[in-house]
Amino acid sequence: MMAECVEEEETSVYVTGCEAAARAVIIAKPSVVAAYPITPQTEIVEKLSLFIGEGRHDCQFIAVESEHSALSACIGAASCGARTFTATSSHGLLYMAEMLYWAAIARLPIVMANANRALASGWNIWADHIDSLSQRDAGWIQFYTSTVQEVYDTILIAFRVAENEGVMLPVMVNLDGFLLTHINQPLRLVDETLYQEEFLDEINVPHALNLDSPHTLGTLISPSDNYRVQHDRKLGMERAKDVIKEAERDFLRLFGREYHPVMEYRSDDAEVLLLGMGTLAKEAEDAVDMMRFRGIKAGLLRLRQIRPFPDDEIIDAISRSPAEKLVIIDRDYSPGSGGILSQEVKTRLYDAGIVKEIVNVIAGVGGQDVSAEDMMEMVELERGEHWWGI
Amino acid sequence: MKVKMAISYPTVGASGRTGDWRVFRPVINQKLCIHCYNCYVFCPEGTISPELGVDYEYCKGCGICANECPSKAIRMVKEE
């Protein structure tokens, strides 16, 4: 008897964060992808080029000569109302810096993946959040991811958030260099038809260039109007808070995976709270479990977005927990000031009138290896700033 | 909902009477004109009409029309 061979559609694969990002982009069907390769983001560009070359999706792939041009090409396409995507990292992101602001003030819903990597001098290609955090005031929505699955899901969510008519802002999805870009993890794929029909609408940029009503975008704007434009960008960012939560709710309903602006892990009865972003904050789940096993009531808050900052969610999570001590892990540093995430959290605590013992640990910068065991030692530290390993 | 951003729609003379800036004025010799419409196409300010007349109210006198004219039908004449 012959076995019948039935080709089943694959629903789960084992891929890197880069490939997961590229797969998500193809499902969202952008019209234009413009990108320049840079370690550790290169595979995103390679895979997109491959998928588009194979005809999986009909799309204009523009191989540009620099990151400045990559984002400029996306700005041009998005100004015409096209769905666009680009990807970069580290020095590439900073080379885009001028155009990052342009894209946000021009209210263009571009989606970008940024592989978090340290900045030279002393070339370092490993994970560090300073590249994206140095651009946090540009007006881009910024997500930070912790698993290959989350990279994929967040890019799928990002297009919907960016293109919301009340938001109309570019979105940066950050994934830690090497720790996510080059690590294979199991990835559950979404039902593409369901995504395209139920989750993501057709793109509509109301101010896009069109021949029926000719106009110019981003022309000279006088002091009597410029502040209005900047204020409107702020309103878009504020509206994004609810739009993100709504998109995350719909994503859960349709695809069964749950995301929140602040991911809480065993924090409700915690006596000490770890707080961080990206892969470090995922590793911290192991640290929390091990501490609990040893009788220390630890908990964890992992921020999935720093812009818009989830003020209400972070205050709510900290207020509900009995913890008096917060250990904020920064994979970044602002010389002359301190850890950036730590400052962001402290600002909200002050506004809410909450006083906690804050330990700020600078750890994992430039790809420094930080283990769950290390984090168990961090909770023993006293108030103030500490550089891990020094 | 429409977002607020820097958008400008084309209008006549949005920057004022830019003809005041002119030092040299283009003068078209209709006898030499071969109706190629190069001046009409190349004028950056849209001040040359399809009938090949110049709107001196807004012509800045850049001279691109004279430069592009293949039959040398446009002369740039110093303003008095």
From TrEMBL, chain A:
SUPFAM superfamilies: Thiamin diphosphate-binding fold (THDP-binding), TK C-terminal domain-like. This is 2-ketoisovalerate ferredoxin oxidoreductase subunit alpha. GO terms for biological process: organic acid metabolic process; response to oxidative stress; sulfur compound biosynthetic process. The keyword Oxidoreductase applies. Heterotetramer of one alpha, one beta, one delta and one gamma chain. PANTHER family: PYRUVATE-FLAVODOXIN OXIDOREDUCTASE-RELATED. Residues 24-248 form the Pyruvate flavodoxin/ferredoxin oxidoreductase pyrimidine binding domain. InterPro entries: PFOR_II, Pyruvate:ferred/Flavod_OxRd, Pyrv_Fd/Flavodoxin_OxRdtase_N, THDP-binding, Transketo_C/PFOR_II. Keywords: Oxidoreductase. Residues 270-375 form the Pyruvate:ferredoxin oxidoreductase core domain. One of its GO terms (molecular function) is oxidoreductase activity. Signal peptide: none annotated.
From TrEMBL, chain B:
GO terms for molecular function: 4 iron, 4 sulfur cluster binding; metal ion binding; oxidoreductase activity, acting on the aldehyde or oxo group of donors, iron-sulfur protein as acceptor. Keywords: 4Fe-4S, Electron transport, Iron, Iron-sulfur, Metal-binding, Repeat, Transport. PROSITE patterns: 4FE4S_FER_1 (PS00198), 4FE4S_FER_2 (PS51379). The keyword Transmembrane helix does not apply. Its cofactor is [4Fe-4S] cluster. Residues 24-49, 50-79 form the 4Fe-4S ferredoxin-type domain. It holds the Pfam family Fer4. The keyword Ubl conjugation does not apply. Heterotetramer of one alpha, one beta, one delta and one gamma chain. This is 4Fe-4S dicluster domain-containing protein. It comes from Candidatus Syntropharchaeum butanivorans.
